[in-house]
Amino acid sequence: MSFRWHPDEPPPSIEGHSRAKLRVLRSYLRAYFDRLAAHLPRDDFKLDLVDGFAGGGTFLDGKAIVSGTPLIMLEESESARQRLNQDRTKPLRFDFKYYFVDIEEAHTDHLKAALNERGYGADDERIVIRNEAFQAVAGTIIAEIRRRQPRAGRSLFLLDQCGFTHVELALVARILRELPKAEVILTLAAGTLVNFLAETPAIVQAVSPLDLSESDVHDLVQAKEGAGGRALVQRVLREKIRLATGAAYDTPFFIRPERSRRALWFLHLSRHPIARDVMIQCHWNNFSTFEHYGSGDFNMLGWDSLRSTESLRLFHFDELEAEDLRVRLLKTVPEELSALTSEGPITIDAIRHAFANRTAARFSDLDSVILQLWREREIEIWGASNRPRSHKLRHLRPHDRIAIPQQLRLFLTGAGQ
Ligand SMILES: C[S@@+](CC[C@H](N)C(=O)[O-])C[C@H]1O[C@@H](n2cnc3c(N)ncnc32)[C@H](O)[C@@H]1O
Fold it and tell me: Does 18 contact ligand 1 (Cβ within 6 A)?
């Protein structure tokens, strides 16, 4: 759905899934700021926040005015500054810059008025507002971020497009390539896209920003009409998006649609496993908002043994799921580890990398399952000394290595039967 803002009119009324999206963004920013601040080398906290499809800044929720994405970025930055400085003797210096872009002049005018009402003056150098297409200004924004932060380019891009055709995946790839510590949150009307898919020249043209060729569209249409159904299409799309953007990690969860049955994807793309873990933690914190298909262990968006989305198990991020997920992981992780360690022990870091895109588990869930398997002697944990550890172990370190005892490996691979 597309919202309209005008500086002389009240803001548009918010809808269910936008409300959910704003809640998750707020909670993600909170976790993101806290996690970044915990690893800062100095007392300088430098970050660039880009809202590429910013809208007019506010919504009506009943009679109340509520903040949209650009205001949420500002509010959460300020509350992080207060929270993170609470117990510090030497204050953490926040050096944040914000870029708010919208193609509609009436929308940026509404946003300017909303900022002004909240005390952000037009001369505030931290805030840049651009009334242009995001694609047209993205290069300048990337260059400016690199000028401010030549090495890391630490930044968060929110690309909250309406529909699925406004953000070229090649542009997302460029952001992640040129700014190594960038993260991108992309919304995508996946449900509408799947409905819309057909092998006509107009549709092939319309989906070209998603890097889908004519033969990709052909394959997707075949998949949609075949046994895998919509779930298979979504799974293929997810792979395509990750490959086309060069993101090593993604979390592809659906915002639960309240009225329409069309799923909205809230995709988080990054090149860092920690960033993915912060996002997945958010899904767990906002359990009533998100869902995905599959069992949660190693079968995310799974369809293999099931025929269609209707018969697929819906995964809800709640405590019952957490317990069920743990039980499933205890069964499936040994086999996964057996395959991963076939050439020798591998590090916890490498295991996280291998599992991240396939499971709804947080790293803390995986760690606790690995520790339990170790206590039950199903796996060995090797420390720096190159020998299996035997003393009490509470936490795993990224460089600890996991090995499967030889006898158990024979059993897991079936050779011992
Ligand atoms: C879903 S709304 C954004 C809502 C906002 N993120 C929020 O939740 O507060 C999408 C916005 O993108 C703008 N837009 C559409 N195409 C654009 C483009 N190519 N570049 C920048 N903005 C665009 C629209 O004018 C609209 O204001």
Answer: yes
